[in-house]
Specification:
Layout: H1 3-26, H2 30-53, E1 56-57, E2 60-61, H3 67-73
Antiparallel strand pairs: 1-2
Length: 76
């Protein structure tokens, strides 16, 4: 399995986190706020674990590319 296909799970988690944060912002009942806060924290933990598994840092993959290497890889 290639690197890009490995990113699909991370992308799904990030979308889930985005949606859950929106639901948290819209929540009005205290019980729902507390529950959704826990869910957001769990999703953030899952994302951190997935990034660690994929060796992705905050700035990108563990093996960085120069601009020229990226352009060459894209065929530009």
């Amino acid at each position: 399995m290639g690197f890009l296909s490995d990113l699909s799970h991370l992308s799904a988690l990030e979308l889930r986190l985005f949606n859950e944060k929106r639901r948290l912002q819209a929540a009005t009942r205290q019980q729902e706020i507390e529950l959704r806060t826990i869910w957001v924290q769990q999703i953030e933990k899952e994302i951190a674990e997935e990034r660690e598994r994929l060796k992705i840092t905050a700035t990108g993959p563990a093996v960085p590319m120069t601009d020229d290497e990226l352009l060459a890889a894209l065929g530009v």
